[in-house]
Amino acid sequence: MAGFRSLARQVRDPRCDLALRRYSLRKCLERFAPYGHRATWDHLCSRAGFGPEDRSPDPARLVAALEELEEARSVWLAYEVGFAERRKKEKHDGLRRPGTVDDWHRLTWGGFGVAWCDDPRVHPREPLAEVLRRLISGLEHEPGSGCPVCGAERLIWKYDLDHEPSAGPVCTHCGILVPRPVLNPEALADARRGRLLVSA
Predict the structure, then answer these.
(1) DSSP string, 126-185
(2) pTM for the complete prediction?
(3) Inter-CA distances, 30 with 11, 64, 97, Å
(4) DSSP code, position 35
(5) In the chain, what percentage of residues exceed pLDDT 70?
(6) Is the distance from CB of 130 to CB of 149 less than 8 angstroms?
(7) Nearest-CA neighbor of 35 among 145, 157, 125?
(8) Which of 22, 26, 92, 157 is most buried, by the most CB atoms less than 10 A from its CB?
(9) Mean pLDDT score of the chain, rounded to an integer?
């Protein structure tokens, strides 16, 4: 089974036919898809300027989509390296029990669904790398009351998500499943009660 870098080479290779290049980009999303496969594909297509069902996109647009995905992947891989180093040091220092960020991170290892969007047409519009930087910043700071990606405080608890966890606080503005560790207890409780918090 081809890895991400091998698939990326196929996307860039002008000797490959266009169908294979498009297919290889789709296969990259099996290795790294921050919003989930369908939502990440929709995001990349809209940002690069071709339709999700377009079978003959401009090769330059395919490469532009790949470059955005690669930049985001490098941001996430750097975070995972730092995360692994921190956990190793904590274990060395006797802290064996992982915290809430660690529990969340265990479910997202590799970058799949780190900013899960259950509705594939509702996702952040900013570049993927910027979204991940904001998410990581939220994970590294004290819990707050809103979405770390868009800053909105309109969260509602949704059930039966096509993801693990299958329920949680969803941002009604950008559509991501907000990681619980970035939210304070009041924001989590309000989302569970179904109250929409409106920023002042």
Answers:
(1) S-HHHHHHHHHHHHHS--BSS-TTT----EEEE-S-SSSSSSEEEETTT-BB--GGGB-H
(2) 0.90
(3) 15, 18, 31
(4) T
(5) 92
(6) no
(7) 125
(8) 22
(9) 90
